[in-house]
Amino acid sequence: MNREEPPPFFGTWNRLYAAVILYLAVLIAGFHAFTKAWR
Amino acid sequence: MILSVVGIVAYGLWRSRGSDTTDAYLRAGRTMPWYAMALSIMATQASAITFISTTGQGYVDGMRFVQFYFGLPLAMVILSVTAVPVFHKANVYTAYEYLEKRFDSRTRTLVSIIFLIQRGLAVGLALSAPAIVLTVILGWPDDWTTVLMGVIVVAYTALGGVKAVTWTDFQQMLIMMAGLAASLVMAVYLLPDNIGFGAALTVAGAAGKLNPVTTNFSWGDRYNLWSGLFGGMFLALAYFGCDQSQVQRYLTGSSVAQSRLSLLFNAVAKIPMQFLILLTGAIVFAFFTFVQPPLLFQREDMAKLTRMPEYPALREKFDAAFQSRQSAARRLAAGGGAKEEFQKAQADLDETRKQAAALTKSNDTNYVFLHFVTNYLPEGIVGLIIAAILAAAMSTISGEINSLATVTVIDIYKRLINTEAADARYLLVSRLATAFWGVYAVVTARFAKNMGSLVEAVNLLGSLFYGGILGVFALAMYFPRVGAAGAFWGVLAGEAVIFTLHFTGATSFLWYNVAGCLVVIATGVVISRLAVR
Questions:
Q1: B270 touching A, CB under 8 A?
Q2: How many domains does chain B have?
Q3: Is the domain of B236 the same as that of B336?
Q4: What residues of chain B lie within 8 A of the CB of A39, using their CB?
């Protein structure tokens, strides 16, 4: 096991995790706008 | 369709070369790259149920089911930080082995048995879905199609082990993606000439089907933003962190980084995929506002209904409501209002279908998409979609049977029955256990047909057990002072609370995981503190 192995994107694991959470927030905001648009 | 099934089985058997030790058979020798594990995780989760039941869910209940997956990316991040390095460091075959390293063999055995019961029942549900497909298309009896699918999957899973399962999952996921794209494109393409994609969305939206985010909170509401984020996160933590059918996929990774990437890929890809599947269901709904659907989508139930004395009156009411809805939908699509008239006609249609379902004691959610595919799509596309559904089914069933066999051999047989056998003996027992669980799945699948929406049934079943399992893993990883007695009794207390919630109907099932997990932790902490005193 190599705990220091970095991810292929974003440089560090913490940055990659933050990107995933940000992506989720954007997705939910987009779906919310979709819901309001077609209500 | 036949070519894809035969090709995948042949590929699985070819991949079985070299799986002649238990490490290679059950853990692929820890050699798998992240992209193979990522698609295998996704394919194991995306069963035939995903295709036929989730689209039906989109048709009947709209898109709000997608919120169920909102907690998944959060869970994947948490698991990447915690569980993945812990499991890799412990060098285990199953997640439950880790519980013995942390607590004792009693806790490990208890949780292993809970997994075997829960996953054993779920695999029957997963197997019933492709049987529904083959029954609708070929007209074969459910029992025969269940047995046929069971034999095919068990054959390549028993011979090939986890390596074959992972690589066939990889191929099957690619077929699924092609089938999914074809379904959505064809659903839009088949809309009447003057009805475009935007008009279809207007109609589906007026019927309340385009609701991927609902912010109202209620404990009894299954799918809203809050139950999805919190309840869904707990369910995903349990499923991907404590369920061997998923853990086994990323235990095959060649490093912590490779396993993490496989989970994070799912964090990114899963929600858009579910959104598109539900949108397909919503577009199919729009299609059937202009083309008259049957009163019930299940042919046998419809035939039964036509022989009942209540049928003529129901038929008349249904036809009138459809005409009214169609007329309102055309005006709505043309931008001419009529939303209230449309919604009233929709309510009448829903009420008529409800009465028909009550008379026949049936639930046809799982048949909506199949009816659309088999009656309206061109043959080549039907073949692709059916191949995708069968690929989804095989990938899920093979992964589940493989994990059930692994727990049976590693946590029960090797731990409790025969601790000192040669490796070849364990390999043989692994293959036999795979065959046993295949037969078990066939038997339980027979009871799944009338359980309503299969995708809900699977998730409800998981929620009855996941809270307890998640709680004990949380104790193991985050509460170093909690001992074996606290963990063991904590699991039992958590399960008792979950079953009480279920049978009293106090909350929606998504909250079972939260409640069960918290009760396990609280009980474990209290018992451990009392033991110290």
A1: no
A2: 2
A3: no
A4: 205, 210-211
Give the residue from B223, B256, B285 with the most A CB atoms within 10 Å of its CB, the best one to mutate: B256
Residues B163 and B193 in one domain: yes
User: Does one domain contain both B17 and B164?
Assistant: yes
Say whether both B284 and B305 belong to one domain.
Answer: no
**Are A21 and B74 a contacting pair at CB < 8 A?**
yes
Q: Which residue has the tokens 């190599």?
A: A2
Of A6, A21, A28, which has the smallest distance from its Cβ to B77's Cβ? A21
In angstroms, rounded to a whole number, what is the distance separating the alpha carbons of residues B471 and B475? 6
State the Cα–Cα distance between residues B295 and B427, nearest whole angstrom: 52
Question: pLDDT tens, position by position, for chain B (533 residues)?
Answer: 777 778 877 877 777 677 788 888 888 888 899 999 999 898 888 877 777 888 999 999 999 999 999 999 999 999 999 999 999 999 999 999 999 999 999 999 999 999 998 888 888 878 877 777 777 776 777 777 788 888 888 888 888 888 888 888 888 888 888 888 898 999 999 998 888 999 999 999 999 999 999 988 777 777 889 989 988 898 899 889 988 988 999 999 989 999 999 999 999 999 999 999 999 999 999 999 999 999 999 888 899 999 999 999 999 999 999 999 999 999 988 887 788 999 999 999 999 999 999 998 888 888 899 899 889 988 888 888 888 888 888 888 888 999 999 999 999 999 999 998 999 999 999 999 999 999 888 888 877 665 555 666 777 777 888 889 989 999 998 999 999 999 999 999 999 999 999 888 778 777 888 899 999 999 999 999 988 76
Q: Pick from B487, B529, B495, B491: which is nearest to B512 by CA?
A: B495
Quote the ipTM score. 0.93
State which amino acid sits at residue B109: T
Pair (B136, B250) in one structural domain: yes
Q: Residue by residue, what is the 3-state secondary structure of B285-303?
A: HHHHHHCCCCCCCCHHHHH
Q: Check whether residue B346 and residue B396 sit in a common domain.
A: no
